[in-house]
């Protein structure tokens, strides 16, 4: 049976890789894509989701979500992803008639409560929409199978010494989500840094299929950390983990979010020695395994 999922995203070059697989892999039933302010502003992240929808001729609805964090000032990652958020590929012109009118939070509530099977939420941007969903409609928790999120780090950060970007963008939202009592898997910087995608592998994507060529061109404009060694396709690890959890090293932990520290805002304080874990933390995967799983998943795309 296909796994029902919702992707909440701020596309984003690595988001494009995750969404491409989720839209096309036969194991997934992608119910909707919801957008959030993050890598770039909400207008651009929504436009980028619509670009991917049009690229794949998809009927999956796209719902616009939160335009700013709960409390924090807006930050972005346009220096990493380019001014539009998905620089490097000439996508088909978008049609805003493809955008569903219902706000992301309300759309998720309706879909969750009407679904015959519990749905897995996959937030791969800041957690603003998910926090608003859980705070506004706590009754939806009964309809959520689990949350598999990209964010956080058990070690060092990438936007500050201790904070990963998605959590840093809206630490108050992350605090709500991590303390929601729901099953949570944190797919953070640790696993991506354990298996950086080499530039040689990125070049292989060009001849894989149309999607591989699209991602190849995007990745050439992706200026993430470790760029000299290769590309960290952070968001794709969430999808690959759901497909092949047995390939990943995972540890249980209590993860709490620093919301007020002057130097530590957005840090995911990860305690592996706790007797009361609230989260599964994905730590690593063998580089060759990641490469194989990533390319195999992309073969289902156009």
From TrEMBL:
<dbReference type="GO" id="GO:0006152">
    <property type="term" value="P:purine nucleoside catabolic process"/>
</dbReference>
<dbReference type="GO" id="GO:0005829">
    <property type="term" value="C:cytosol"/>
</dbReference>
<protein>
    <submittedName>
        <fullName>Inosine-uridine preferring nucleoside hydrolase</fullName>
    </submittedName>
</protein>
<dbReference type="InterPro" id="IPR023186">
    <property type="entry name" value="IUNH"/>
</dbReference>
<keyword id="KW-0326">Glycosidase</keyword>
<dbReference type="InterPro" id="IPR001910">
    <property type="entry name" value="Inosine/uridine_hydrolase_dom"/>
</dbReference>
<keyword id="KW-0378">Hydrolase</keyword>
<dbReference type="Pfam" id="PF01156">
    <property type="entry name" value="IU_nuc_hydro"/>
</dbReference>
<feature type="domain" description="Inosine/uridine-preferring nucleoside hydrolase">
    <location>
        <begin position="5"/>
        <end position="291"/>
    </location>
</feature>
<dbReference type="GO" id="GO:0008477">
    <property type="term" value="F:purine nucleosidase activity"/>
</dbReference>
<dbReference type="InterPro" id="IPR036452">
    <property type="entry name" value="Ribo_hydro-like"/>
</dbReference>
């Amino acid at each position: 049976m296909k796994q029902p999922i919702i992707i909440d995203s701020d596309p984003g070059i690595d988001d494009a890789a995750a969404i491409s697989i989720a839209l096309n892999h036969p194991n997934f039933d992608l119910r909707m894509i919801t957008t959030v302010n993050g890598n770039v502003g909400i207008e651009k992240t929504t436009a980028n989701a619509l670009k991917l929808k049009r690229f794949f001729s998809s009927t999956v609805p796209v719902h616009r979500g939160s335009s700013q964090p709960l409390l924090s000032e807006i930050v972005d990652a346009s220096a990493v992803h380019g001014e539009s958020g998905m620089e490097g590929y000439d996508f088909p012109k978008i049609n805003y008639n493809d955008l569903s009118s219902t706000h992301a939070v309300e759309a998720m509530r309706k879909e969750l409560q009407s679904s015959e099977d519990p749905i897995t939420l996959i937030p791969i941007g800041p957690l603003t929409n998910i926090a608003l969903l859980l705070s506004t409609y706590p009754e939806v928790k009964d309809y959520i199978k689990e949350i598999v999120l990209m964010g956080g780090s058990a070690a060092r950060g990438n936007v500050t010494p201790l904070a990963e970007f998605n959590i840093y963008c809206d630490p108050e939202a992350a605090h709500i989500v991590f303390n929601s009592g729901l099953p949570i898997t944190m797919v953070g910087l640790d696993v991506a840094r354990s298996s950086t995608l080499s530039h040689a592998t990125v070049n292989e994507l060009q001849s894989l299929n149309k999607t591989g060529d699209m991602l190849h061109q995007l990745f050439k404009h992706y200026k993430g950390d470790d760029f000299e060694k290769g590309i960290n396709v952070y968001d794709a690890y969430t999808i690959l983990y759901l497909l092949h959890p047995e390939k990943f090293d995972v540890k249980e932990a209590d993860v709490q979010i620093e919301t007020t520290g002057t130097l530590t805002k957005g840090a995911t304080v990860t305690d592996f020695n706790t007797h009361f874990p609230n989260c599964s933390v994905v730590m690593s995967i063998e580089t060759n395994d990641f490469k194989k799983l990533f390319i195999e998943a992309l073969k289902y795309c156009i």
